[in-house]
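Appendix B, example 12.
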Amino acid sequence: MLKREYRLTFGSINKGKNFKLPLFNLRIGENPLEINRFAFIISKKVDARATERNALRRKVRSCIEEIFDNIKPGNDFIFYPSALAKDKDRAEILEEIKRIFKENNLLK
């Protein structure tokens, strides 16, 4: 579980970059803080059952927690996992996140 200070509670970024990937959509925006904040928004279109949506949220969050110390500070991230991510294992999701972060120079 991410600490409260690293959670993005309002769920919107006015100016930022959008990335549409097979496993998730990602919106990245800058924040005036020296920390990163994250939000994970999973629609009922992905799965109607709350237990499945929460399991997917925990899976994506655990990937972020693994690389958390390697992410450059000062950004807000909103993840919108797709229905395809529900069927993938954690390692595949982690590789996709690492790939998009490396491409955009967000890792230290």
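Helices lie at 50-67, 83-87, 90-103. The chain is about 35% helix and 20% strand.
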